[in-house]
Amino acid sequence: MIEKEHTLITKNFPETFDNPLEFNKKLDQVHHIMETFKDLIELCGDDPNRNGLQETPYRVLKAFFEYTEGYREDPKLHLEKTFDVNHKELVIVKDIEFYSICEHHFAPFFGVAHVGYIPNQKVTGLSKIARMVEGYAKRFQVQERLTTQISEAIEEVLEPKGTMVVVEAKHMCMCGRGIKKSRASTTTSSVRGIFADKPEARAEFLSLLYK
Ligand SMILES: Nc1nc2c(ncn2[C@@H]2O[C@H](COP(=O)(O)OP(=O)(O)OP(=O)(O)O)[C@@H](O)[C@H]2O)c(=O)[nH]1
Ligand SMILES: [Zn+2]
């Protein structure tokens, strides 16, 4: 078990490799959280030592590191690899699937992001836009912040004439618990530059998106 925990730390926090103080601090936190997960299982009414649950605290922690990978990178940096392409009209990457975690309940919310911008000299690789979306999705989030972070990253790095982002998602905290509306979905948008100023720019984006 100890070996697995070490691997978890070196994989997710490679900077602690040469820093025993930081490494041991993370190791203490890992031990502490695994004990807490055991308490959670017991409090909910099951036996943390029964066969199927013995490794669950470790599995859950490992999964959480995966859900939150985005904290350990700066997603904007993906956009910095730009190309010299003379394109002055709208670029839209639509249906970028994402999987995020609601910061209120730690329940998943997931769906698609549609990202559009009108370049002003700088054009980035299409996959880099999806990588950037992933980086912000893999954090504890609310949908509104995710949407804004995506548009602000495009604005900051590509300095385009305008940016428009639409995010559509389903929130598990509204499905299996609470209000239990499993068909409800949420749409958010964020507009900058020409999309904020001109209704016809927004209309063009939406007509290409929902044709
Ligand atoms: N605006 C917004 N709200 C969210 C998002 N994800 C979850 N929520 C909401 O966060 C709210 C938290 O409300 P609370 O009253 O503090 O928590 P709760 O008692 O669990 O609320 P219920 O879900 O209504 O049972 C709920 O209304 C959720 O629907 C999100 O991405 N954006
Ligand atoms: Zn929630």
From TrEMBL:
<comment type="similarity">
    <text>Belongs to the GTP cyclohydrolase I family.</text>
</comment>
<dbReference type="GO" id="GO:0005737">
    <property type="term" value="C:cytoplasm"/>
</dbReference>
<keyword id="KW-0547">Nucleotide-binding</keyword>
<feature type="binding site">
    <location>
        <position position="173"/>
    </location>
    <ligand>
        <name>Zn(2+)</name>
    </ligand>
</feature>
<keyword id="KW-0342">GTP-binding</keyword>
<feature type="binding site">
    <location>
        <position position="102"/>
    </location>
    <ligand>
        <name>Zn(2+)</name>
    </ligand>
</feature>
<dbReference type="InterPro" id="IPR018234">
    <property type="entry name" value="GTP_CycHdrlase_I_CS"/>
</dbReference>
<dbReference type="GO" id="GO:0046654">
    <property type="term" value="P:tetrahydrofolate biosynthetic process"/>
</dbReference>
<feature type="binding site">
    <location>
        <position position="105"/>
    </location>
    <ligand>
        <name>Zn(2+)</name>
    </ligand>
</feature>
<dbReference type="GO" id="GO:0008270">
    <property type="term" value="F:zinc ion binding"/>
</dbReference>
<keyword id="KW-0554">One-carbon metabolism</keyword>
<comment type="subunit">
    <text>Homopolymer.</text>
</comment>
<protein>
    <recommendedName>
        <fullName>GTP cyclohydrolase 1</fullName>
        <ecNumber>3.5.4.16</ecNumber>
    </recommendedName>
</protein>
<dbReference type="InterPro" id="IPR043134">
    <property type="entry name" value="GTP-CH-I_N"/>
</dbReference>
<dbReference type="Pfam" id="PF01227">
    <property type="entry name" value="GTP_cyclohydroI"/>
</dbReference>
<feature type="domain" description="GTP cyclohydrolase I">
    <location>
        <begin position="34"/>
        <end position="208"/>
    </location>
</feature>
<dbReference type="GO" id="GO:0006729">
    <property type="term" value="P:tetrahydrobiopterin biosynthetic process"/>
</dbReference>
<dbReference type="InterPro" id="IPR001474">
    <property type="entry name" value="GTP_CycHdrlase_I"/>
</dbReference>
<dbReference type="GO" id="GO:0006730">
    <property type="term" value="P:one-carbon metabolic process"/>
</dbReference>
<keyword id="KW-0479">Metal-binding</keyword>
<dbReference type="GO" id="GO:0005525">
    <property type="term" value="F:GTP binding"/>
</dbReference>
<dbReference type="InterPro" id="IPR043133">
    <property type="entry name" value="GTP-CH-I_C/QueF"/>
</dbReference>
<dbReference type="GO" id="GO:0003934">
    <property type="term" value="F:GTP cyclohydrolase I activity"/>
</dbReference>
<keyword id="KW-0862">Zinc</keyword>
<keyword id="KW-0378">Hydrolase</keyword>
<comment type="pathway">
    <text>Cofactor biosynthesis; 7,8-dihydroneopterin triphosphate biosynthesis; 7,8-dihydroneopterin triphosphate from GTP: step 1/1.</text>
</comment>
<dbReference type="InterPro" id="IPR020602">
    <property type="entry name" value="GTP_CycHdrlase_I_dom"/>
</dbReference>
